[in-house]
Amino acid sequence: MAKVYIALIHHPVYNKKKDIVSTCITGVDLHDIARSALTFGVRKYFVVNPMPAQLKFADRIISCWKKEESFTHNWTRAEAFRLVELAENLDEVLGKLKNPIVVATSAQPRGRVKFKKVRALIKKSRRPVLILFGTGWGMADKLFLKVDYTLEPVNGISTYNHLSVRSAVAIILDRLLGG
Amino acid sequence: MAKVYIALIHHPVYNKKKDIVSTCITGVDLHDIARSALTFGVRKYFVVNPMPAQLKFADRIISCWKKEESFTHNWTRAEAFRLVELAENLDEVLGKLKNPIVVATSAQPRGRVKFKKVRALIKKSRRPVLILFGTGWGMADKLFLKVDYTLEPVNGISTYNHLSVRSAVAIILDRLLGG
């Protein structure tokens, strides 16, 4: 089975006017997604943002939860935070992994690769698999040039398709790695 | 197919010392879970908390997002907030529904009913189905006396089983109602 990694992309992403922007790292994204990552055996959760002030902010939170006393206070959170690693851009993440298969996710219908197919790929592959999650109104088109597969969107019952990224990550990891 | 409702329970729940407490309503719980609820066709998302100050706080957020101008600003959030309804306790929620089947969720292994079974139940039942989600360190034992079924926990790959409630709700709704 492949080693699975995830990356939360804050730039380049779109805002609602389709401008390319950087979105902000939030404490709740660090927290929730780290817990989902650990639950589903993900090896590392990369948080990608080019802005020094943002990286400093995130590093402060992460470092706090990696201290010994944090384990005493809330081991479930501290344990999850061990998976979190910061990066300035996607190329930096790709450089840390050995020839990964890159799978993008999207709420838009641009992705056509079935969950079933990626689940099987993860099961058989010897190469690591890196799954990308966008923030804002989605990853910029140019990022998709670095991607091997784009997953179909998570569809529910209604036509409404605007899950929070935290919820989308949880569902996607469950569909790809859950029992 | 049954009409499905969900309730986020803030009291009575346990803290980490097993005391019975009330936990606080958070904006991100209102936001994320409302989006998940709307994605999966849930009819109402009840937020259950007995404390007047907490209900007032939540009502202020909900009311804001139900105003016309909110739809212009962020329709995806405003649309989701339409599903949110406050209640002081579980009995109040049960009183609003017509003889619901009550399904509890738990991160503890107390639940043994398979997801497959509850999914089939929802498909066939004419009675509404109410799914309960706890906060803190889980719903108090006495609440389970009002419950018809307790779902098996969401298990990932590792033995770690400490998803945020937002992530757990997303996964469970997907497993029960997703395509």
Write the layout of secondary structure elements.
The structure is a homodimer of 179-residue chains.
Chain A: E1 4-9, E2 13-14, E3 20-21, H1 27-39, E4 44-48, H2 52-65, H3 68-81, E5 84-87, H4 90-96, E6 101-104, H5 115-124, E7 129-134, E8 149-150, H6 165-177
Parallel strand pairs in A: 1-4, 1-7, 4-5, 6-7, 6-8
Antiparallel strand pairs in A: 2-3
Helix pairs in contact in A: 1-3, 1-6, 5-6
Summed up, what is this model?
Chain A is α/β, with parallel strands linked by helices and 179 residues long.
Defining key terms:
8 strands; six-stranded parallel sheet; about 40% helix; globular; homodimer; about 180 residues; alpha/beta; two-stranded antiparallel sheet
Structure characterization notes:
- Two copies of one chain form a homodimer.
- Chain A is α/β, with parallel strands linked by helices.
- Chain A contains six helices and eight strands; from the N terminus they run βββαβααβαβαββα.
- Chain A has helices at residues 27-39, 52-65, 68-81, 90-96, 115-124, 165-177, and strands at residues 4-9, 13-14, 20-21, 44-48, 84-87, 101-104, 129-134, 149-150.
- A six-stranded parallel β-sheet of chain A has the order 5-4-1-7-6-8.
- In chain A, helix 5 (115-124) links the parallel strand 6 and strand 7.
- The longest helix of chain A is centred in the N-terminal third of the chain and has 14 residues, at 52-65.
- Chain A is globular.
- The mean pLDDT of chain A is 94.
- The A-B interface holds A 28, 31-32, 35-36, 38-41, 76-77, 79-80, 154-158, 160-164, 166-171, 173-175, 177-179 and B 28, 31-32, 35-36, 38-41, 76-77, 79-80, 154-158, 160-164, 166-171, 173-175, 177-179.
